[in-house]
Amino acid sequence: MLEMQDNIQVCVKGLKKNFGKLEVLKGIDVQIKKGEVVVLLGPSGSGKSTFLRCLNRLEEITAGKVSVDGIDITDKKVNINKVRENVGMVFQHFNLFPHMTVLDNVMLAPVELKKKTKEEAKEEGKRLLERVGMSSKAEVYPPQLSGGQKQRVAIARALAMNPDVMLFDEPTSALDPEMVGEVLQVMKQLARDGMTMIVVTHEIGFAREVASRVIFMDEGYIVEEGTPDELITNPKESRTIDFLSKVL
Ligand code: ADP
Ligand code: MG
Known about the structure:
With 248 residues, this protein is α/β, with parallel strands linked by helices. The protein has helices at 2-5, 48-55, 80-86, 102-113, 118-131, 147-159, 177-192, 204-210, 228-233, 238-247; strands at 8-19, 22-33, 37-41, 63-68, 71-72, 87-90, 165-169, 196-200, 213-218, 221-226. The protein is built from ten helices and ten strands.
């Protein structure tokens, strides 16, 4: 409860995650305040996706503690569906249901999980599609959309659960270059609206412009963190410098 008083929305202490003998996360400590936009950088295989998945218990953690909104999500008694409602996630691949319209994709979870009426969910769904610039495609099926459009629908779908925290795992990595901008634009607006966001991305420009904090991870540890200026412009650790020299 102390955490809530300090406006800490995500609190991670001593987080470890093993897959069998493989130690993927080796002790992560991080606290994220309400409204912060944290960009997570790191080489492939460093544990970024695993870290995000531990924040909504898509992975069971091996050791440590994760709390969201002051609730210990690793507590076996906690209702994991409630936790997941509160922590939205957007993946590299959009996972939309191809046989449902865009609007139905966005409405599905609120109707199924939040027990909203169809009418309520439809109103909210339309509003969210507007927010991501996809109103005109409400009745279209996902296979008819471009990658950037699909990802914007996926963001609207995650927002439909009215989460407090949004996790993005390389949301633009599968997109053709000309579609990256439209997705980043939606994410920037979300950040301006005050959403707490944790974003794994190699889009350094986005990190510079939008991140309140940048964390560099390597081999299951946080190597270095700071403001975009500190971490991207003036990195201190040799591993950070080496990584940035490859992506910049
Ligand atoms: P990143 O997102 O930074 O590329 P990941 O979190 O996906 O890294 O993976 C970190 C390490 O964990 C990799 O060595 C990967 O092979 C391993 N790993 C990830 N998920 C699993 C899993 N379900 N089972 C076994 N190993 C996994
Ligand atoms: Mg990954």
